[in-house]
Amino acid sequence: MGSKERILRQKEETRANIIKAAREIVKDEGWQGLSMRKIADKIEYTAPIIYEYFSNKEAILQEITCRGFCLLTKDLETAKASNDDAAHQLEAMWMAYWNFARDNREMYQLMYGVEMACCTQRSTEADLPYKLITEVIREIMKDVNPTDMVIKQKYFTFFSVIHGLISINIIGDGLSNDINKQILKDAIQGIIRYIKE
């Protein structure tokens, strides 16, 4: 391996270490505890080195947000591929959405601004979950040939219920996992029945 490739690899590793350190700090201290100085201390670099990779804390937050939407999209694609029936796909996708939020609590908070200000810079990654889910909604409703506005309305009906339940659980103690899953399944199945009519 040439020196150019080695330097590139080292830069990518340092960038990845910065993101990893930021996520670890957030798990321990919450988003309000994150600072460039703490990241530098955690990876044993000086703060100016961090600024060579990210112009400020918001740039790090934006990177984490984009990665979050990529991970969520991957989970949704896997859930969609698990079944051929559009209604079952949609249920599996929303359950995958729920599981992502539960397993990546801090990242979800950042992505959607739960108990914090989310990144204001919109990314193409942020639109991917919406596109995936609305494709399946459109497939379920194909017999009525819905407009884009109707599809959007149905998406936000789902999103409101599921995001609301996730937010309740992030902010408060929430309900038990079994009760949450039953509420979630009831809501998803009820909305699917409604949009199939």
Can you walk through the features of this model?
This protein is elongated. With 197 residues, the protein is mainly alpha-helical. It starts with a helix and ends with a helix. It contains nine helices and no strands.
Would you kindly provide a brief summary of this structure?
This protein has about 200 residues and is an all-alpha fold. The chain has 9 helices and no strands.
| Helix-residue proportion | over 70%
- Shape assignment: elongated
User: Total number of helical segments?
Assistant: 9
The average pLDDT is 87
Q: What is the C-alpha radius of gyration, as a whole number of Å?
A: 20 Å
Largest sheet: none
Range of strand content:
under 5%
CATH architecture of the largest domain: Orthogonal Bundle
CATH fourth-tier homologous superfamily of the largest domain: Tetracycline Repressor, domain 2
What's the CATH class of the largest domain, please?
A: Mainly Alpha
Domain HTH tetR-type: 12-72
InterPro entries: Homeodomain-like_sf (IPR009057), HTH-type_Tx_Regulator (IPR050624), HTH_TetR (IPR001647), MT1864/Rv1816-like_C (IPR025996), Tet_transcr_reg_TetR-rel_C_sf (IPR036271)
Pfam family, one: TetR_N
DNA-binding region: 35-54
Layout of helices and strands:
Blueprint: H1 3-29, H2 36-43, H3 47-53, H4 57-81, H5 86-103, H6 105-112, H7 124-140, H8 148-171, H9 177-196
Keywords: DNA-binding, Transcription, Transcription regulation
Pfam family, one: TetR_N
GO molecular function, one term: DNA binding
